[in-house]
Request: fold
Amino acid sequence: MLKTIEYSTEFCGGGGGIAGLCAAIAAARHGAKTVLVHDRPVLGGNASSEIRMWICGARGQDNRETGIVEELMLENFYQNAGLKYTLWDSVLSEKAMLEPNLTLLLNTSCFEAKTQNSKIKSIKAWQPNAETFHVIKAEYFADCSGDSILAPLTGAEFMQGRESKADFNESIAHDEPDSKTMGMSCLFQTRETTSRKTFIPPTWAYKYPTEEDLAHKGHNTETNFWWIEIGGEDDCIHDTDKCRDELLKIAYGVWDHMKNHGDHGVDNWELEWIGFLPGKRESRRYTGKHIITQNDVQSEGRFEDIVAYGGWPIDDHFPAGFYYTAGDLAVDTHAPSPWGIPLRSLYSNNIENLVFAGRNISATHAAMSSSRVMATCGIMGQAIGTAVAMAISENASLEQINIAALQQKLMDDDCYIPWHNRRVSAISQNAHCSADVVRNGIDRGGENCWVGSAGDFIEYTFEKPQKISGIRLVFDSDLNRKYQNMPCNYPLVEERFKLPKTLTKEYKIVGIDKDGKEHITLGTLNHQRFVRHVVDWEVVSVKLYPLSTWGEDKFKIFGFEVS
Reply:
């Protein structure tokens, strides 16, 4: 007997990659009753243990994405010092499971949707390992699945393939449109050992006996083998399994070449893992109220309704992928970092309650080549989750919500929005502060950071007793660190310290009331950049004493605010 479970909720998220996870967490934290549907057993999408692509984002000084994306990375550095992928999976799952407003459905695939009057009323999903159908009714639906499964199920407008120059006046577009896309990859990982290791390839693996066979394809232990890529000339959705089989033949052949044909310095290295789930770069893209183009990207995207930003180059891979022989497999076209992403490109043009984040946003092929990387996808996810929760609480459509208020909510949650300053609480603004820099509304950049030594503190004082309910802190997590959230390969000795040494580890917050009584909140083993404390104090002063870091001599604090 098959089972059916019905849900009546406010927000249904689809796709548990970085974008979908951030969307679901943000919506749940802002009070929306949320169900997250994901068709895999682990969260993370292309970043998960099933695919193992590190998280990339905006380039340039102080441009690293913060908010939930940074929270996930820092939690991983703390819990998973050895950077094991199975533990990374558990860090992501824990973040979802600890949210009281969030119901998580793994191994669950959406296959049906019902619409009425340009709105999605419900979706139906199948969970095979539990032999259970899940029917979910919601006010808003998010499709962060990458392949945009709700497009064919709801009639939502979408794009696929490459536009022509004439379509959007893009200089890097082709003269004629086509259905080709960027391809997909099966990555593999290796580990260095203390002794020589042999490798016997499967009989069906391809053979690459010479260096010319892998021309323009850097093959060493420093790369993540992204160039093992095909599928851009096929149907990048329906031909996935066929492409996987081809990718595996290539991947095993590449490692065979490195181990058995020539000296590649890998005598003591062994193949530890190979991905049987391809990581995709491009498929369907929804059509929103605004379609981001190459011209938008290169003019910095200074939209009035900016809610996120990109900063990766316009990184366009040739559809032939591995089989492209004329030179490098991808072409990077300059994109400013940052460039702005508008909310209008994150909700559907014709389905009123459909939002999206990830590689499937409303963008041309050229623009998507810059916006598709996962840190960018994550902050877009947090933006739509926050926007939907706001629309639900105000009983308004996404087009009706106050964009300035949404931007302030995002910045208050430590999401950077270029060219905008966060509004600091009135209590903090009106108080005397011993370090004005911590209340300037800018939570990044060396010029916006208080630097202290042992024994130093920051103090707010008030002319008369003030009711304090919240304390907001932003520490320095080294936004310019050069290492990734997870490795591509495992050398014998890895000396790099992953949890940023600049982070404040221990601190004390002391509120003093009119009678001189101290009210104390302690931070112990802190490993996050962004921290909130809920208090119930009536005090005449509040002091922050940083006590230790994870390695630095100096204390660095971007934000200390009372409300």
Notes: The chain is about 20% helix and 25% strand. The mean pLDDT is 97. The CA atoms of residues 220 and 264 lie 7 Å apart. The radius of gyration is 25 Å.
